Amino acid sequence: MSTEAPDFIQRFREGSFTSALRWPQLDALWQRILADNHGNWYLYAVGESPPEEAASREQVEQFVREIDELLHREHEEDYCGIVYADDLEQPTLVKIYDPNNLGVVCGFSDNPPLPGWVMSQQRPADLPSAQRPTGSRRRWWQRILARAG
């Protein structure tokens, strides 16, 4: 575990996060991330091993396209509300919840569910997965990395 791990865990657990509540807010968040896409984003599928290296520019672009499509297709609501960033204007840590495994995402819980994916400008530490990703989600993740790699 890297020396950054305790800091990442603390930021992940105790940081202040704001939801991209509406779809246009999510679109704006993606645009900000892509505008600041200089090989400084780690893409982490919770339940998999955390990445050792930041994703390539192409991997980030591919991930944003694919996750946006997945969220619109599988989160059948007229609002988003399942993507949270530490700062919607200058994000450095983004939690993306899986529409098929939401549990109690909003509100208070002593044991809130983990997101399905994390985008971070800091190397992430391993987050214990409450539920191992399904086979279809794991194949989806591997396909994204293979396409952009």
Write up what this structure looks like.
- With 149 residues, this protein is α+β, with helices and mostly antiparallel strands.
- The protein has one domain.
- 37% of the residues lie in helices and 11% in strands.
- The chain has 4 helices and 5 strands; from the N terminus they run H-E-H-E-H-E-E-E-H.
- Strands 1-3-4-5-2 form a 5-stranded antiparallel sheet, with no helix packed on it.
- A hairpin with a 7-residue loop joins strand 3 and strand 4.
- Helix 3 runs antiparallel to helix 4.
- The relative contact order is 0.24.
- The mean pLDDT is 83.
Find the count of extended strands (DSSP E, 2+ residues). Answer: 5
Give the structural class: alpha+beta
Strand content: 5-15%
Number of domains: 1
What does the oligomeric state look like here? Answer: single chain
| Overall geometric form | globular
Q: Terminal Cα separation, in Å? A: 25 Å
Query: Strand order within the widest sheet?
Result: 1-3-4-5-2
Topology:
Elements: H1 5-14, E1 18-19, H2 23-35, E2 42-45, H3 57-74, E3 83-85, E4 93-96, E5 117-120, H4 135-148
Antiparallel strand pairs: 1-3, 2-5, 3-4, 4-5
Helix pairs in contact: 3-4
